[in-house]
Description:
A: mainly alpha, two-stranded parallel ribbon, 2 strands, about 0% strand, B: Rossmann fold, about 20% strand
Amino acid sequence: MIQFPNQVESDLIELSKSKSVYLEGNILKLVNTSSDEFQQYLDTSVTKDTDNRKKRLEVTRQFQDQNKELLAKQQENDELMKSLQEALIQAEKAKDDALNDLSVMQKKTQYELIGNIVQIALYVIVGVGIVVTGMYVYSMSTNSTETTLIGNTWSNLFGILLTNSFSIIGTIMGVKYADDQKSKSSK
Amino acid sequence: MIDSIFLVDDEDLFHLVFEDACSLLNISLSLDAVYSTDEAESMFAEWQQKPSDKPKCAFIDLNVIGSSYDGIELIRKVNKQYGNGIVIGIISSSVDPNEIERAKGAGAMFWIVKSDDIEPRLEQFHEDFEDYVDGIKSFTVYQ
Lengths: 187, 143
Protein backbone atom coordinates (compact mmCIF):
# COMPACT_ATOMS: atom_id res chain seq x y z
CA MET A 1 0.00 0.00 0.00
CA ILE A 2 1.16 3.58 -0.62
CA GLN A 3 0.31 6.84 1.09
CA PHE A 4 0.45 10.22 -0.66
CA PRO A 5 1.96 13.26 1.09
CA ASN A 6 -0.63 15.61 2.63
CA GLN A 7 -0.02 18.26 -0.03
CA VAL A 8 -0.70 15.77 -2.83
CA GLU A 9 -3.88 14.62 -1.11
CA SER A 10 -5.06 18.24 -0.78
CA ASP A 11 -4.20 18.94 -4.43
CA LEU A 12 -6.11 15.88 -5.61
CA ILE A 13 -9.15 16.89 -3.51
CA GLU A 14 -8.96 20.41 -4.91
CA LEU A 15 -8.69 19.05 -8.47
CA SER A 16 -11.79 16.94 -7.96
CA LYS A 17 -13.71 19.98 -6.71
CA SER A 18 -12.58 22.37 -9.44
CA LYS A 19 -12.38 20.06 -12.48
CA SER A 20 -14.30 16.94 -11.38
CA VAL A 21 -11.22 14.86 -12.14
CA TYR A 22 -10.62 11.77 -9.99
CA LEU A 23 -7.99 9.05 -9.79
CA GLU A 24 -9.01 5.89 -11.58
CA GLY A 25 -7.80 2.36 -12.26
CA ASN A 26 -6.13 -0.26 -10.14
CA ILE A 27 -3.90 2.28 -8.37
CA LEU A 28 -6.94 3.07 -6.20
CA LYS A 29 -6.62 -0.41 -4.69
CA LEU A 30 -3.11 0.44 -3.50
CA VAL A 31 -3.64 3.89 -1.97
CA ASN A 32 -4.06 4.29 1.77
CA THR A 33 -4.71 7.42 3.88
CA SER A 34 -5.18 8.61 7.44
CA SER A 35 -7.25 11.62 6.38
CA ASP A 36 -11.04 11.28 6.50
CA GLU A 37 -11.45 13.81 3.72
CA PHE A 38 -9.04 12.02 1.40
CA GLN A 39 -10.64 8.68 2.31
CA GLN A 40 -13.93 10.16 1.16
CA TYR A 41 -12.21 11.29 -2.05
CA LEU A 42 -10.84 7.75 -2.53
CA ASP A 43 -14.27 6.21 -1.93
CA THR A 44 -15.80 8.54 -4.53
CA SER A 45 -13.00 7.71 -6.98
CA VAL A 46 -13.52 3.97 -6.47
CA THR A 47 -17.30 4.34 -6.98
CA LYS A 48 -16.79 6.37 -10.17
CA ASP A 49 -14.17 3.93 -11.47
CA THR A 50 -16.40 0.94 -10.70
CA ASP A 51 -19.37 2.59 -12.46
CA ASN A 52 -17.23 3.37 -15.49
CA ARG A 53 -15.88 -0.18 -15.65
CA LYS A 54 -19.38 -1.61 -15.31
CA LYS A 55 -20.60 0.61 -18.15
CA ARG A 56 -17.61 -0.35 -20.29
CA LEU A 57 -18.11 -4.02 -19.52
CA GLU A 58 -21.76 -3.76 -20.50
CA VAL A 59 -20.96 -1.96 -23.77
CA THR A 60 -18.13 -4.36 -24.58
CA ARG A 61 -20.45 -7.32 -24.01
CA GLN A 62 -23.04 -5.76 -26.31
CA PHE A 63 -20.33 -5.36 -28.96
CA GLN A 64 -19.23 -8.92 -28.35
CA ASP A 65 -22.79 -10.20 -28.83
CA GLN A 66 -23.26 -8.11 -31.97
CA ASN A 67 -19.94 -9.35 -33.24
CA LYS A 68 -20.98 -12.95 -32.66
CA GLU A 69 -24.28 -12.33 -34.46
CA LEU A 70 -22.47 -10.71 -37.38
CA LEU A 71 -20.04 -13.61 -37.61
CA ALA A 72 -22.93 -16.11 -37.53
CA LYS A 73 -24.73 -14.15 -40.28
CA GLN A 74 -21.52 -13.94 -42.30
CA GLN A 75 -21.15 -17.70 -42.01
CA GLU A 76 -24.80 -18.15 -43.02
CA ASN A 77 -24.25 -15.88 -46.06
CA ASP A 78 -21.12 -17.78 -47.03
CA GLU A 79 -22.99 -21.08 -46.88
CA LEU A 80 -25.86 -19.58 -48.90
CA MET A 81 -23.44 -18.26 -51.51
CA LYS A 82 -21.80 -21.67 -51.71
CA SER A 83 -25.21 -23.34 -52.25
CA LEU A 84 -26.10 -20.76 -54.91
CA GLN A 85 -22.83 -21.32 -56.72
CA GLU A 86 -23.37 -25.07 -56.64
CA ALA A 87 -26.93 -24.59 -57.98
CA LEU A 88 -25.59 -22.30 -60.73
CA ILE A 89 -22.99 -24.88 -61.76
CA GLN A 90 -25.68 -27.59 -61.87
CA ALA A 91 -28.01 -25.33 -63.89
CA GLU A 92 -25.23 -24.59 -66.39
CA LYS A 93 -24.47 -28.29 -66.68
CA ALA A 94 -28.19 -29.04 -67.24
CA LYS A 95 -28.29 -26.29 -69.89
CA ASP A 96 -25.25 -27.75 -71.68
CA ASP A 97 -26.79 -31.23 -71.55
CA ALA A 98 -30.09 -29.90 -72.94
CA LEU A 99 -28.29 -28.06 -75.77
CA ASN A 100 -26.30 -31.18 -76.53
CA ASP A 101 -29.47 -33.29 -76.61
CA LEU A 102 -31.14 -30.72 -78.88
CA SER A 103 -28.17 -30.74 -81.25
CA VAL A 104 -28.19 -34.54 -81.37
CA MET A 105 -31.93 -34.55 -82.06
CA GLN A 106 -31.56 -31.95 -84.82
CA LYS A 107 -28.78 -33.95 -86.46
CA LYS A 108 -30.82 -37.12 -86.17
CA THR A 109 -33.79 -35.43 -87.85
CA GLN A 110 -31.55 -34.04 -90.61
CA TYR A 111 -30.03 -37.46 -91.26
CA GLU A 112 -33.46 -39.07 -91.29
CA LEU A 113 -34.68 -36.47 -93.81
CA ILE A 114 -31.60 -36.95 -95.99
CA GLY A 115 -32.05 -40.70 -95.72
CA ASN A 116 -35.68 -40.45 -96.88
CA ILE A 117 -34.75 -38.19 -99.81
CA VAL A 118 -31.99 -40.58 -100.89
CA GLN A 119 -34.28 -43.57 -100.56
CA ILE A 120 -37.03 -41.98 -102.66
CA ALA A 121 -34.53 -40.71 -105.23
CA LEU A 122 -33.02 -44.17 -105.52
CA TYR A 123 -36.46 -45.76 -105.88
CA VAL A 124 -37.28 -43.29 -108.68
CA ILE A 125 -33.92 -43.87 -110.41
CA VAL A 126 -34.12 -47.66 -110.11
CA GLY A 127 -37.85 -47.63 -111.07
CA VAL A 128 -37.29 -45.53 -114.17
CA GLY A 129 -34.25 -47.67 -115.08
CA ILE A 130 -36.28 -50.89 -114.70
CA VAL A 131 -39.24 -49.57 -116.72
CA VAL A 132 -37.07 -48.24 -119.59
CA THR A 133 -34.89 -51.39 -119.59
CA GLY A 134 -38.06 -53.52 -119.67
CA MET A 135 -39.38 -51.51 -122.57
CA TYR A 136 -36.03 -51.89 -124.40
CA VAL A 137 -35.89 -55.66 -123.79
CA TYR A 138 -39.52 -56.00 -124.89
CA SER A 139 -38.92 -54.04 -128.10
CA MET A 140 -35.81 -56.11 -128.88
CA SER A 141 -37.59 -59.39 -128.29
CA THR A 142 -40.53 -58.38 -130.50
CA ASN A 143 -38.26 -56.92 -133.21
CA SER A 144 -40.13 -53.67 -132.90
CA THR A 145 -39.33 -50.87 -135.32
CA GLU A 146 -38.99 -48.61 -132.28
CA THR A 147 -35.98 -50.57 -130.90
CA THR A 148 -33.40 -48.11 -132.13
CA LEU A 149 -35.35 -45.16 -130.75
CA ILE A 150 -35.89 -46.89 -127.41
CA GLY A 151 -32.20 -47.98 -127.38
CA ASN A 152 -31.09 -44.39 -127.79
CA THR A 153 -33.60 -43.24 -125.22
CA TRP A 154 -32.44 -46.00 -122.82
CA SER A 155 -28.79 -45.06 -123.20
CA ASN A 156 -29.53 -41.32 -122.79
CA LEU A 157 -31.80 -41.96 -119.84
CA PHE A 158 -29.29 -44.27 -118.15
CA GLY A 159 -26.57 -41.65 -118.59
CA ILE A 160 -28.82 -39.00 -117.06
CA LEU A 161 -29.88 -41.29 -114.20
CA LEU A 162 -26.28 -42.19 -113.41
CA THR A 163 -25.28 -38.52 -113.51
CA ASN A 164 -28.17 -37.67 -111.18
CA SER A 165 -27.26 -40.53 -108.84
CA PHE A 166 -23.72 -39.24 -108.47
CA SER A 167 -25.05 -35.72 -108.10
CA ILE A 168 -27.30 -36.83 -105.20
CA ILE A 169 -24.49 -38.77 -103.55
CA GLY A 170 -22.16 -35.78 -103.97
CA THR A 171 -24.72 -33.44 -102.42
CA ILE A 172 -25.24 -35.78 -99.45
CA MET A 173 -21.50 -36.10 -98.89
CA GLY A 174 -21.13 -32.31 -99.11
CA VAL A 175 -23.90 -31.69 -96.57
CA LYS A 176 -22.40 -34.26 -94.19
CA TYR A 177 -18.90 -32.76 -94.52
CA ALA A 178 -20.18 -29.21 -93.93
CA ASP A 179 -22.13 -30.37 -90.87
CA ASP A 180 -19.06 -32.11 -89.40
CA GLN A 181 -16.96 -28.97 -89.93
CA LYS A 182 -19.64 -26.84 -88.23
CA SER A 183 -19.82 -29.09 -85.13
CA LYS A 184 -15.99 -29.15 -84.91
CA SER A 185 -15.73 -25.31 -85.03
CA SER A 186 -18.54 -24.89 -82.42
CA LYS A 187 -16.58 -27.06 -79.99
CA MET B 1 -5.32 -10.38 -4.91
CA ILE B 2 -3.22 -11.71 -7.79
CA ASP B 3 -0.49 -9.18 -8.58
CA SER B 4 -0.28 -9.75 -12.30
CA ILE B 5 -2.21 -11.79 -14.80
CA PHE B 6 -1.27 -12.75 -18.35
CA LEU B 7 -3.95 -13.36 -20.96
CA VAL B 8 -3.47 -14.96 -24.39
CA ASP B 9 -6.56 -14.54 -26.56
CA ASP B 10 -7.09 -13.53 -30.19
CA GLU B 11 -10.32 -11.61 -29.46
CA ASP B 12 -9.61 -8.01 -28.44
CA LEU B 13 -13.11 -7.48 -27.04
CA PHE B 14 -12.50 -10.34 -24.63
CA HIS B 15 -9.34 -8.57 -23.43
CA LEU B 16 -11.52 -5.65 -22.30
CA VAL B 17 -14.17 -7.90 -20.74
CA PHE B 18 -11.55 -9.90 -18.89
CA GLU B 19 -9.69 -6.83 -17.66
CA ASP B 20 -12.87 -5.15 -16.39
CA ALA B 21 -14.18 -8.35 -14.82
CA CYS B 22 -10.87 -8.94 -13.00
CA SER B 23 -10.77 -5.34 -11.82
CA LEU B 24 -14.39 -5.29 -10.64
CA LEU B 25 -13.94 -8.57 -8.79
CA ASN B 26 -10.66 -7.35 -7.24
CA ILE B 27 -8.88 -10.34 -8.69
CA SER B 28 -5.79 -8.63 -10.04
CA LEU B 29 -3.84 -5.41 -10.05
CA SER B 30 -2.47 -5.59 -13.56
CA LEU B 31 -3.15 -7.46 -16.76
CA ASP B 32 -0.88 -8.13 -19.73
CA ALA B 33 -2.62 -9.42 -22.81
CA VAL B 34 -1.37 -10.67 -26.18
CA TYR B 35 -3.16 -11.91 -29.29
CA SER B 36 -1.16 -15.00 -30.29
CA THR B 37 0.67 -17.95 -28.79
CA ASP B 38 3.79 -16.95 -30.74
CA GLU B 39 3.83 -13.54 -29.01
CA ALA B 40 3.19 -15.25 -25.69
CA GLU B 41 6.08 -17.66 -26.21
CA SER B 42 8.51 -14.81 -26.86
CA MET B 43 7.31 -13.10 -23.68
CA PHE B 44 7.84 -16.28 -21.65
CA ALA B 45 11.35 -16.47 -23.14
CA GLU B 46 11.99 -12.88 -21.93
CA TRP B 47 10.61 -13.67 -18.48
CA GLN B 48 12.96 -16.64 -18.27
CA GLN B 49 15.82 -14.11 -18.45
CA LYS B 50 14.07 -11.70 -16.07
CA PRO B 51 11.91 -13.74 -13.65
CA SER B 52 10.89 -10.71 -11.57
CA ASP B 53 8.65 -9.52 -14.44
CA LYS B 54 6.95 -12.88 -14.74
CA PRO B 55 3.15 -12.80 -14.12
CA LYS B 56 1.67 -14.81 -11.27
CA CYS B 57 -1.00 -16.43 -13.39
CA ALA B 58 -1.60 -17.09 -17.10
CA PHE B 59 -4.93 -17.66 -18.85
CA ILE B 60 -4.47 -19.17 -22.32
CA ASP B 61 -7.23 -19.43 -24.91
CA LEU B 62 -7.54 -22.88 -26.51
CA ASN B 63 -7.86 -21.89 -30.18
CA VAL B 64 -5.88 -18.72 -30.76
CA ILE B 65 -6.58 -17.75 -34.39
CA GLY B 66 -3.54 -16.47 -36.26
CA SER B 67 -1.08 -18.44 -34.15
CA SER B 68 1.30 -21.21 -35.14
CA TYR B 69 -0.08 -23.55 -32.49
CA ASP B 70 -2.93 -23.76 -29.96
CA GLY B 71 -3.07 -22.86 -26.27
CA ILE B 72 -2.41 -26.40 -25.04
CA GLU B 73 0.78 -26.58 -27.09
CA LEU B 74 1.84 -23.22 -25.60
CA ILE B 75 1.34 -24.59 -22.07
CA ARG B 76 3.42 -27.65 -22.98
CA LYS B 77 6.20 -25.41 -24.33
CA VAL B 78 6.04 -23.07 -21.32
CA ASN B 79 6.26 -25.95 -18.87
CA LYS B 80 9.05 -27.77 -20.71
CA GLN B 81 11.19 -25.01 -22.19
CA TYR B 82 10.69 -21.96 -20.01
CA GLY B 83 10.51 -23.49 -16.52
CA ASN B 84 7.01 -22.28 -15.84
CA GLY B 85 6.57 -21.76 -12.08
CA ILE B 86 3.33 -19.86 -12.57
CA VAL B 87 -0.29 -20.87 -12.26
CA ILE B 88 -1.26 -21.58 -15.87
CA GLY B 89 -4.46 -22.87 -17.47
CA ILE B 90 -6.89 -22.72 -20.34
CA ILE B 91 -9.77 -20.30 -20.80
CA SER B 92 -12.06 -21.50 -23.56
CA SER B 93 -15.70 -21.73 -24.62
CA SER B 94 -15.09 -25.40 -25.41
CA VAL B 95 -15.88 -28.17 -22.91
CA ASP B 96 -14.58 -30.99 -25.09
CA PRO B 97 -13.42 -33.74 -22.66
CA ASN B 98 -10.65 -34.84 -25.04
CA GLU B 99 -9.21 -31.32 -25.15
CA ILE B 100 -9.54 -31.01 -21.37
CA GLU B 101 -7.57 -34.25 -20.95
CA ARG B 102 -4.99 -33.01 -23.45
CA ALA B 103 -4.60 -29.77 -21.50
CA LYS B 104 -4.20 -31.68 -18.25
CA GLY B 105 -1.52 -33.83 -19.89
CA ALA B 106 0.32 -30.73 -21.10
CA GLY B 107 0.51 -29.38 -17.54
CA ALA B 108 -2.47 -27.03 -17.41
CA MET B 109 -3.63 -26.50 -13.82
CA PHE B 110 -7.19 -25.38 -14.55
CA TRP B 111 -9.78 -24.99 -17.31
CA ILE B 112 -12.18 -22.05 -17.16
CA VAL B 113 -15.19 -22.11 -19.46
CA LYS B 114 -15.46 -18.79 -21.26
CA SER B 115 -19.01 -17.48 -21.57
CA ASP B 116 -20.96 -14.25 -21.12
CA ASP B 117 -21.24 -14.59 -17.34
CA ILE B 118 -17.64 -15.49 -16.57
CA GLU B 119 -17.48 -13.61 -13.25
CA PRO B 120 -18.68 -16.42 -10.91
CA ARG B 121 -16.08 -18.80 -12.34
CA LEU B 122 -13.33 -16.18 -12.03
CA GLU B 123 -14.33 -15.59 -8.40
CA GLN B 124 -14.24 -19.30 -7.70
CA PHE B 125 -10.83 -19.56 -9.34
CA HIS B 126 -9.63 -16.57 -7.32
CA GLU B 127 -10.63 -18.35 -4.11
CA ASP B 128 -8.61 -21.40 -5.18
CA PHE B 129 -5.61 -19.42 -6.46
CA GLU B 130 -3.41 -19.72 -3.38
CA ASP B 131 -3.98 -23.49 -3.34
CA TYR B 132 -2.72 -23.64 -6.92
CA VAL B 133 0.36 -21.64 -5.90
CA ASP B 134 0.97 -24.03 -3.00
CA GLY B 135 0.48 -26.98 -5.31
CA ILE B 136 -2.30 -28.55 -3.25
CA LYS B 137 -5.12 -27.99 -5.69
CA SER B 138 -5.62 -30.58 -8.40
CA PHE B 139 -6.68 -29.82 -11.96
CA THR B 140 -10.14 -28.24 -11.90
CA VAL B 141 -12.66 -27.38 -14.60
CA TYR B 142 -14.68 -24.25 -13.79
CA GLN B 143 -17.96 -24.38 -15.71
